[in-house]
Amino acid sequence: MRTDQPVLPGTSLGGTSPRTVWDGFHAPRLTQARRLAGLTKRDVAEGIGVSAAAVGQYEAGTNRPRPELIPRLADVLDVPMQFFVAGRPMGKLDSSMAHFRALRSTSGAQRERALGFVEQVWELTHALEKRVQLPLVNLPGFTGGEVHPGIDLPADPVGAARELRRHWGLGDGPVRHLARRMESHGLIVAAPSEADAAAAKVDAFSSCGLLRPVVVLTPNRADDVYRYRFSAAHELGHLVLHTASTGDSLLEREADSFAAEFLTPEKSVLPLLPRRVDLARLAGLSRTWGVSVSSLVYRYRELGLVSDATISRSYQRLRGLSRQPGFAPESVRGFPGEQPVMLRKAFELAEQDTGLTIRELAAELAWKPARVRELLGMPDSRPVLRLV
């Protein structure tokens, strides 16, 4: 018996048969599981002994896998058999509903995998929100927002950044704990572990296609808290400026402009920038404002303070200092306030108030318990038995 299989409400492990799953088979769940596994239809077909065309029919809903194939399908895709049963809330996304930070460096398959990850994050959030009241969505311009501030952000990136800072009461100083700040306004922020296949090759991305805006930050590409924070602000810019993703480089530049003004407002930073590009002084400003020295150098260009030739020389000098104290990347792990906690805290509150367990939550979602722990950021604490 596979003890990591969750139990659906009203059933037992022994009572959930392949025939029962076949009766309630939901084609979109197969597509989602395949996305998450990072497999092609041909890969799945080879794993269960059918043709790729047959798998295409299963996903299209024009045919269903025979009952005897369902356990093999679950094994190939590393999900419980119950995962394929209809009746659970499901968030569905396509690539037009997400902004990817590094669009050209990621394949279509990688983006599909990342979208499947976001769908699961939303489903976990939905399950927790039935038990715990999460912060209301307070993001001007987001159509699903629960707080209606009665304001429209300017269409230009700099103006939008200034107005959002004002609306969120951030003042003119540095933005501390950006990820937590976003969560406090109802955004879902997810930071997959390096082991999570959904984030293996994707930098950062966001989606406003579900009932809550979602921002996914993946420090594994470059474990640098300043780049991580800029990516978070960049994705925030997409959420408030752009209703759909087109892959246009103009949208990326606008999100960058938003992020720069949001993290380092011109009226606050301009008086602090030395007239000449002084990297040692910029390193001090970097720590204060939570942005990279490279980002501050770029602010000189944005604000028209120095020539492009000076900027180029400054970047060359920065490359030579990249391993020196004050210039070397700092791990996100050293900054707890930049790591999301909303979903884990929601589970802990539900556990305390209602007795909810990981196994019960996994049963409701039809996931393996390990997957629930992974998305909650709660690794298995049990000691590992090693046989030699």
UniProtKB/TrEMBL annotation:
Pfam families on file: HTH_3, Peptidase_M78
SMART domains reported for this sequence: HTH_XRE
Chain segments annotated as coiled-coil in the UniProt record: none
InterPro entries hit by this protein: Cro/C1-type_HTH, IrrE_HExxH, Lambda_DNA-bd_dom_sf, Rad_response_metalloprotease
Molecular function in Gene Ontology: DNA binding
UniProt cross-references to Gene3D superfamilies, sorted A to Z: 1.10.10.2910, lambda repressor-like DNA-binding domains
Domain of life from the UniProt record: Bacteria
HTH cro/C1-type domain segment(s): 30-84
PANTHER family from the UniProt entry: ANTITOXIN HIGA1, BLL7220 PROTEIN
Family: Belongs to the short-chain fatty acyl-CoA assimilation regulator (ScfR) family.
The protein's name: ImmA/IrrE family metallo-endopeptidase
Taxonomic source organism: Streptomyces chartreusis
